[in-house]
Design a protein that fits this description.
Elements lengths: L24 H31 L19 H14 L2 E2 L7 E2 L10 H5 L1 H13 L17 H7 L25 H10 L7 E2 L11 H7 L3 H6 L3 E5 L28 E6 L5 E7 L11 E3 L13 H41 L5 H6 L6 H20 L3 H15 L7 H7 L13 H21 L6 H5 L2 H12 L13 H23 L2 H5 L25 H7 L3 H14 L11 H10 L9 H24 L21
Helix pairs in contact: 4-20, 9-11, 9-12, 9-16, 9-17, 11-12, 11-20, 14-17, 14-22, 21-22
Length: about 650
């Protein structure tokens, strides 16, 4: 088969329920199903038509190299198709977001039912009503809990059942959520495991005392030189203006604050990442903005009632919530894949080998991102975080401008952050270890496919569709350091590997962990503090009430927790959405793929199975706080599905 596609006849559009009956619950559900069926039919028919046009002229396009296709009989048909695609897939930046789809093509539409599943459609539909400034606002609850124990009794968040004694390990092998051990471990295998870096020099804005750090880490100089001091730096949040909350039931508005901290960790000989220094803001003013040092020089001295140190970690978590949601999750996963997908659709024909390799990893992304720009950012995140919608866009703009495509190749990312996986003290950085194994597996798969397509660098350089795709991704998509021109096989291998890795491994790591780590509000305040930070001479007066007043009110807690619960729903294995089941599905339907894909997919299936078994075996012997099933290929999404 020339292009590896089915030649079955076109599907027909199904009519939905109309008239007076359209509003009843059964009809609404029926129309959900019908809308999804019609969307799938439209997608299938569109690609089938494009391939059929080519096969009228060239019966076996797979015999023609991409670098020679411009000399074939079907080149005019390919160009005509791509010109039509350019009209359908247009870039837009008019709303202040990075380049994205202007109008969603009909065959890119997915219903909420397909994306979120039937059990989540109603909770999803109710989210906007939680922040509706109309009559429902009178139901807002602006009160706060009377104690942190009340959070545990509420059952909100999967961390809420954790033990209260910081030195006691519960029967499942987990430390208390607020301990330094757990705070450090979240940098390695929590919802945001991509921010930590080795501290090779103290960051700009550091206002602390080296003498005090040497007291906390007696061998500071040697530990620093050995690469055992680590850093979180939230400078990208500095200067973004916090805004008042939206009006409450009586029109009242509340001030909010967003920290931009500097955090230092000591990676100890016990293989535990322990925070030792927290500076509230880069714009430090002596006496006015607080600096916190770890109150103890040994882990065994930790107590549950040091509220000042717990507050300091909570400030970090509020900033981390913002950088995670707007950075690693929204900008670097969702928006980046969308921008690439637009250029891809505009310049890569369905008969091109890259189309077969990459197309399924863009599934649902454009629909999800369109919804996020309409609802998630302006309604949900805007309400929860301190900087409002415009502040969110400012942060996203900064993050987009700082993104370097080639530095995100996984080995490059680890190197740039100074992460040495061979360091025995980093053996529990499971995101890094699992990510590296998966990067290699995906790259070997991409190599096996494209080595059958490109025999040398000259064939890569001569592929006109590939070159224009790369140029548009860089120039119209504004993706910094996107490889252009692509003149070597290695360049196309790394580019393709990152596209697959970003949509599957990276997104799964930062998305499906959200409910566990972030829906428990004391562990992860949603991008804001609701009480002014203390001055330096006030930090010893911080108590439990101060912490509770710094958290958002109950209604904002509900908005954040419910949103994260919906977004963190496990991948639907019955739809073959996981990376493992996606590969198996392709192999079960060999008539729909080119023959040169079969062997690479078979090899990938074997590698993924081996990786899956290794991760499960490791988790079987690890205590709960060290278990990390997130990057098991049987749990990773093949695309950005939610």
């Amino acid at each position: 088969m020339g292009c590896g596609a089915s030649s079955s006849k076109k599907g027909d559009v199904v009519e939905g329920v109309k008239g007076d009956d359209a509003g009843n619950p059964f009809s609404i559900l029926t129309n959900f199903f019908i809308e999804e069926v019609n969307s799938r039919v439209a997608r299938s028919n569109f690609v089938r038509d494009a391939i059929a046009d080519i096969e009228k002229v060239e019966k076996d396009l797979s015999l023609i190299k991409p670098s020679k296709i411009s000399d074939s009989k079907c080149w005019k048909s390919i160009l005509a198709y791509l010109e039509d695609q350019k009209k359908l897939y247009e870039y837009d930046t008019s709303d202040g977001f990075p380049p994205h789809i202007k109008t969603l093509p009909p065959f890119e539409k997915y219903t909420e039912l397909t994306i979120f599943g039937i059990s989540n459609v109603l909770p999803l539909a109710m989210l906007p009503s939680l922040v509706n400034p109309g009559p429902l606002a009178k139901k807002f609850d602006f009160s706060r809990q009377t104690s942190l124990s009340e959070f545990n009794r509420s059952g909100i968040g999967k961390l809420s059942g954790a033990v209260d004694d910081p030195l006691k390990i519960d029967r499942e092998g987990s430390y208390a959520w607020f301990t330094d051990v757990m705070f450090g471990q979240q940098r390695l295998q929590g919802n945001h495991p991509v921010a930590l870096r080795c501290c090779t020099e103290l960051p700009k804005g550091f206002a602390g005392s080296l003498d005090k750090l040497r007291e906390l880490v007696p061998k500071w100089d040697s530990e620093f030189q050995a690469g055992n001091i680590y850093l979180l730096d939230y400078a990208i949040l500095t200067g973004v203006k916090a805004v008042l909350s939206d009006p409450g039931p009586n029109g009242e508005q509340f001030p909010r604050w967003l920290p931009d901290p500097i955090v230092l960790f000591h990676n100890t000989a016990k293989e535990q990442l322990i925070p030792i220094y927290i500076q509230y803001t880069h714009d430090h003013v002596d006496g006015q903005t607080p600096i916190f040092y770890r109150p103890w020089s040994s882990i065994s001295a930790e107590t549950s009632n040091n509220w000042g140190w717990r507050y300091a970690k909570m400030c970090v978590q509020a900033a981390d919530w913002m950088l995670h949601e707007l950075g690693a999750h929204l900008t670097w996963a969702h928006l980046m894949e969308e921008t690439i997908a637009i250029s891809f659709h505009r310049n890569i024909h369905p008969c091109h080998p890259l189309y077969t390799l990459l197309i399924n990893h863009f599934e649902k992304t454009l629909q999800l991102n369109t919804d996020a720009r309409k609802t998630l950012v302006p309604i949900i995140i805007h309400q929860a975080c301190a900087v409002g919608q415009q502040g969110c866009k400012e942060i996203v703009g900064r993050l987009w401008a700082s993104y370097d495509f080639q530095s995100r190749y996984f080995p490059n990312d680890l190197k740039n952050r100074g992460i040495e996986l061979t360091n025995p003290r980093m053996k529990h950085y499971y995101y890094g270890h699992d990510g590296m194994v998966l990067w290699k597996a995906i790259r070997e798969y991409v190599t096996a496919v494209l080595s059958r397509v490109y025999k040398n660098d000259e064939e890569v350089a001569g592929d006109k569709q590939l070159q224009v795709f790369a140029i548009e991704a860089r120039d119209l998509g504004k993706i910094n350091n996107f490889p252009t021109p692509i003149t070597t096989i290695d360049q196309v291998l790394d580019m393709s590997t990152l596209i697959i890795f970003n949509a599957s491994v990276h997104h799964s790591a930062v998305n499906y962990t959200q409910e566990y780590f972030m829906s428990y509000i004391p562990n992860s305040p949603p991008g804001s503090l609701w009480r002014a930070p203390p001055k330096q001479n006030e930090i010893d007066n911080i108590d439990e009430r101060f912490i509770l007043d710094s958290l958002p009110p109950r209604s904002i807690q509900d908005i954040s927790s419910e949103t994260l619960k919906v977004l963190s729903q496990p991948i639907n294995t019955s739809r073959n959405d996981t990376l493992t089941s996606y590969v198996e599905r392709q192999l079960e339907d060999k008539d729909r793929i080119n023959s040169y894909m079969v062997e690479p997919l078979t090899e990938l299936a074997s590698r993924l199975s081996t990786i899956s078994h290794a991760i499960r075996a490791r988790n079987d012997i690890n205590p709960k706080y060290l278990k990390y099933p997130t990057l098991d290929p049987a749990m990773i999404g093949a695309s950005i599905f939610i």
